[in-house]
UniProtKB/TrEMBL annotation:
GO terms for biological process: superoxide metabolic process. GO terms for molecular function: metal ion binding. This is Superoxide dismutase copper/zinc binding domain-containing protein. It comes from Noctiluca scintillans. Signal peptide: none annotated. Coiled coil: none annotated.
Length: 352
């Protein structure tokens, strides 16, 4: 199929009819029809890779840390993969600034290379702009980026952190994770029109995640409201109500979810996000995942599962109607509550 595997909308419209005999001597029956519309948003899980970062063989000999990389399926246009990376490293060069990291093309680069040839995975020009812009006084760095590539084969590759001169400073080999990987598809809340998907990975006390959202307000840049632009794991186990969705899910003293989510939307109201949260080892299986509007309103919700899950929304789209329909001449049928599906239309609607 040429459709993107990470977002498909199936729209089924059912016409449900109840045939009731109005009387033995009557030649018409009443057919009560109800249209039911079933939306299912099916999302494929992203591939998940992790790497332990060290300074072995690099210039940052004391570097240590960990990074998680999520890779989406290619989209229909251009066959591009979306690569999300999140993690933290310490022991790099201390107190680097944006000026220092602009010294060369590879300076302060965050790239994925072939472990043997050191060739870029994908087109090199797509990687060149991907840089960190500063480090702390102990050489600490928070990694958080999203890049679109023409290759998605990351297993056994080198996640490289370049120093300010462009030389390899630290890195680690990416290993694909096949357990403790979770998936969620979200459906609109209160007719918001917002749906999304995310893949999450739990490792010890840390929850990392990456995902996409559509149907948001266009060209959003202000996410300063409480829960504005948020993408959070909630404590609830149902999306049916606010109380069922619960609040942010964590065991720490401070709420770690206050800054996770997307930071802007494009002209179509689409957004992407990646995050890493230390929630003290909470169990996320069966919990709600909630996406917020930029004003903090809850816009979309789904239940987290260890496998890709659809997000169905069943809603009436037409009030029941009673329409006289002719029966066969001379019919004396006494059947009551005879049901038949008289129409079913399946639409395959592509979304991005």
């Amino acid at each position: 199929s040429s459709f993107p595997l990470d977002q498909k909308h199936w729209h089924a419209v059912f016409l449900w009819c109840q045939d009731e005999e109005l009387g033995e001597t009557m030649s018409v029956s009443s057919v009560n029809c109800l249209f039911l519309s079933l939306w299912v948003t099916a999302r494929a899980s992203y591939s998940v890779y992790t790497a332990i970062i060290t300074g072995d063989g690099g210039t940052a000999t004391n570097a240590s840390g960990e990074v998680t990389v999520f890779v989406s399926d290619p989209s229909a246009t251009g066959g591009m993969y979306t690569v999300f990376a999140v993690g933290s490293v310490s022991g790099l060069e201390a107190d680097l600034s944006n000026v220092t990291c602009s010294a060369s093309t590879l300076a302060c680069g965050l790239h994925i290379h072939d472990a043997e040839s050191f060739a870029f995975i994908g087109n090199a020009s797509l990687w060149y702009p991907n840089k960190y812009t500063s480090t702390g006084s102990a050489g600490e760095l928070a990694i958080n980026y999203i890049v679109d590539l023409d290759s998605g084969d990351m297993g056994g590759r080198l996640f490289a952190i370049h120093d300010s001169a462009g030389s390899p400073g630290a890195g680690g080999i990416l290993v694909q994770e096949t357990s403790d990987v979770w998936s969620v598809a979200t459906a609109e809340i209160d007719s918001s029109g917002v749906d999304g998907s995310a893949t999450l990975f739990t490792d010890g006390t840390v929850v990392t995640g990456a995902g996409k959202v559509s149907g948001l307000s266009a060209d959003v840049t202000d996410c300063s409201a409480t829960n504005g632009c948020g993408a959070h794991v909630h404590s609830g186990t149902s999306c049916d109500s606010t109380s069922g969705q619960g609040g942010h899910h964590y065991n720490t003293e401070e709420d770690p979810w206050t800054t996770t989510g997307y930071t802007s939307t494009d002209s179509d109201g689409d957004a992407r996000f990646v995050f890493s949260v230390d929630s003290e080892g909470v169990d996320i299986d069966g919990r709600t995942f909630v996406i917020h509007m930029n004003d903090g309103t809850r816009a979309s919700c789904g239940l987290i599962s260890s496998a890709p899950t659809p997000a169905p929304t069943l809603m009436p789209t037409m009030a029941p109607s009673s329409t006289p329909m002719p029966t066969a001449f001379g019919s004396t049928s006494k059947s009551v509550c005879k049901f038949s599906v008289t129409a079913m239309i399946i639409h395959f609607v592509l979304g991005c």
